[in-house]
Amino acid sequence: MLRIAIQKSGRLSDDSIKLFKECGIKFESGSSKLRSVSSNFPLEFLFLRDDDIPGYVEDGVADIGVIGLNVLEENKKKVDIVKELGFSKCRLSLAIPRNENYTGLNYFEGKNIATSYPNLTNQFLSANGVKSQTHEISGSVEIAPSIGLADAICDIVSTGGTLLSNGLKEVAEVFKSQAVMISNSSLNSEKKAILDKLLFRIDSVQKAQDRKSTRLN
Asked: Residues 26-39: what's their mean pLDDT?
């Protein structure tokens, strides 16, 4: 039996569940469910907070997991990336109030930036020679400038609609992200064999989708 951790709610959870069901793996899922065992494949699902998944996989509580690359890079856990899954694509970007005049990355010199991703934000700014202050907050990052908590934010962007609705504009991309499958680095041979079978199913589904997309275009 292979134990996999996936996000318990949200877009990444929906995309992950869709993928596994397209692979023919039968299991129960729902907002109140915390674990589920497949009825036709040696796979047990754990439904967790996304931030907790890299640690669970590193510690061996879960054998594998599906997580956003941004969360993985922010947490810096010792796990292996076994496959880029290609869905739940987004970007981590810097954003400022819409009426501000953006002059380039030097705009952020000495500024206060609110973010849930302080490590990635600081790495990007440092690599570009910018000195600023980051304030780590979880949730509702977009409201920080309007309540005087920060001058700017660095947050995940998919369509940009949330930024616009909060009077912000995206000005610099920090990190590109997508869903990835991660693995504990010490899987035994039996679990590696199950993982190989799972990856084969995923590859088959994705190739079929690519062929269908090519025909439609």
From this structure: 89
Q: Where do the H-state alpha helices sit in the chain? A: 11-22, 53-59, 69-75, 118-127, 161-165, 189-216
Answer yes or no: are the C-beta atoms of 67 and 180 closer than 8 Å.
Answer: yes
CB environment 171-187: b (16+ within 10 A), e (fewer): bbebbebbbbbbbbeeb
Q: What is the pTM of this model?
A: 0.89
Tokens of 143: 């409201």
Whole-number Å distance between alpha carbons of 90 and 110 = 27
User: 81 — phi, psi (to 5°)?
Assistant: -85, 115
C-alpha closest to that of 22 among 216, 212, 217, 214: 212
Residue 5 main-chain phi, psi, to 5 deg: -105, 130
Tokens of 29: 């899922």
Give the whole-angstrom CA distance, residue 18 versus residue 20. 6
Give dist(CA 168, CA 47) in Å, integer: 33
Q: What share of the chain is helix, strand, coil (3-state, %, to 5)?
A: 40, 30, 35
* 216 pLDDT more than 70: no
Nearest to 141 by CA among 112, 101, 106, 100: 112
Q: Which two tokens stand for residue 44?
A: 């047990």
Predicted confidence band of residue 81 (pLDDT cuts 50, 70, 90): very high
Using the predicted structure, report yes or no on whether residue 217 has a pLDDT greater than 60.
no
